[in-house]
Amino acid sequence: MSLWDDLKKKAYDANPELAAKAAQALDKARDLAVEAGQKAAPIIKQASDKAAGYAQEKTPLLKAQALKAIDDAKVRRAQLQEQAKRDKAAREEMIRTMYDITLTPDDVNFIEEPFNHFERQLGFFVFNGEVLDSQKRNQTHLDAYHSHSTSGGYIWNGTGSGTSSSSSLQVSSHNVQEHEFWVRLEDGKEACFQLNNGEVRIRPGQHVSLMFVHNAGNKNGQMVALYNHNAGQNYIVTPAAQINRAFGLYLEEPGLFNQRTVLDTRHRLLQALEVRLGQLARYMALHGDRRGGQLIEAQQD
């Protein structure tokens, strides 16, 4: 018997009538609470339905406003690009504002913001889901290098030496950690993803957001970041320099006369890409854990 039950028994034994009245009062209070809950339930449901309806009504409007702001920025950027062909000041303004954004990561429509580099444009989309399985394994890769050299002979006054050759084979090995994991996406489908990144830490049951980047007009994307919502941890799986090489945003090599311009341009690009990756990490943290929701996807022109 618990201490509470023992106290109740003692109270009943001491004064059965008082104990019975107390029990009746408790039962009545319980009945009143149930009745109040039953009366409040329809009101709460009505208020919840109104709030949901209002959100559904406002969401398309807010999305349309966000997309219009982005489109206006595109038009303005195109005007600057056209004017920049004739006007040095316009070109400087275009370069200064090239990486500006219209929305902020707090806005659910921020995923629609493209990344601009002169005439090139990248888009983004996100998959959200639950990790079903995660496995890491080490793979050993062998690299072989073969070299062959030949030395010429000579003859002088009837004497000399002939040609000689030598070959050498060098073999080196390095380990690569491959990470394979399965995710149940928000539409119920299961997908397998692979990374060559040993720093990503996830386990079954955790919810993740997977960020992809793609060329505007092309739906094929490359994973650039993964956000673990349970751990509150973001992982950059494709750094800025690698994005630049993969999509060929700016691959010009510095020469004798344009070294400073090329290096400054590349530095601005990589810095802007790193800033955008940070903004996308915040976006996933705020909007990515939408369990039971839908795919967050950028508009693909």
Describe it.
It is a single chain. The chain folds into two domains: 1-87; 98-297, no CATH class. By secondary structure, the protein is of the alpha+beta class. Strand 3 and strand 4 (159-161) form a beta hairpin. Helices cover 43% and strands 30% of the residues. It has helices at residues 3-14, 16-84, 88-97, 240-247, 259-287; strands at 115-117, 120-151, 154-156, 159-161, 164-185, 190-195, 207-215, 222-228, 233-236, 296-297. It is built from five helices and ten strands; from the N terminus they run αααβββββββββααβ. Keywords: Coiled coil. Residues 63-97 form a coiled coil.
Q: What is the strand and helix layout of this fold?
A:
Layout: H1 3-14, H2 16-84, H3 88-97, E1 115-117, E2 120-151, E3 154-156, E4 159-161, E5 164-185, E6 190-195, E7 207-215, E8 222-228, E9 233-236, H4 240-247, H5 259-287, E10 296-297
Low-confidence stretches: 292-301
What's the alpha carbon Rg, rounded to whole Å?
A: 33 Å
Terminal Cα span: 71 Å
Question: What is the tally of beta strands?
Answer: 10
Percentage of residues in strands: 25-35%
Number of helices: 5
Order of helices and strands: HHHEEEEEEEEEHHE
Average pLDDT works out at 79
| Approximate shape | elongated
- Helical fraction equals 40-55%
Q: Structural class of the secondary elements?
A: alpha+beta
Number of domains: 2
- Biggest sheet overview: 8 strands, antiparallel
